[in-house]
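Following up on my earlier thread - several people asked me to post the actual chain instead of describing it. Fair enough. Here it is, all 200 residues.
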Amino acid sequence: MKNPSSQLAVGTSPSRDSPKAVLPSYRAYDPLPVGCATVDADGRIKDINRRGAEMLGWTARWLVGRSLGKWVLSDDAPLFEAHLRAAALSRQGVSERLRVKNRHGRIRDMRWESVAARGAGEGAGQVVTVMIDMSEDRKQERLARFERAKLLQAGRVNMLGEIAAGLAHDLSQPLGAILLNSTVGLELQVRVGAAAAQRH
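Reply from S.P.:
Thanks for posting it. Predicted structure:
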């Protein structure tokens, strides 16, 4: 016979009275670099790890019982509600990009991976969400685009410099010859004029 605890979702543990799965406690997930939260059908936070709380700018204890949708930008609120509904019905999970404004006013671009909480009783109708901060990725993309634009501009300036140097060389050769010949011509004309003046 299988051990009942082997059938539990990751991060869950059996209760004392029953081998049924219960919702995870995110204290074990505090070291993770992503936010993890459990929300009920209304979007109220049931549990959240330290990183998730930091993303929102509060402590985990303060956030429990409050609506997670409060921090989602109003433009993304319909997406958030649809995401929760889809996640509650999904066995494989859903993904959505949502923007969140934390307590300090910083807007974070996040990818939310959510799935219905497994287990009966207390976990019914709840959703487990992993929040991945994409803001740094976006920042890196913007920085890469900026650096690429700088390189393209430097390439254009370099190309213009080469064209200018080529034009200067192509013009200086004939102009130098004309200047040299005109100087020699003037000297010759002065000598011829002086010789003709002496003869007369």
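The chain has four helices and five strands. That should answer part of your original question.
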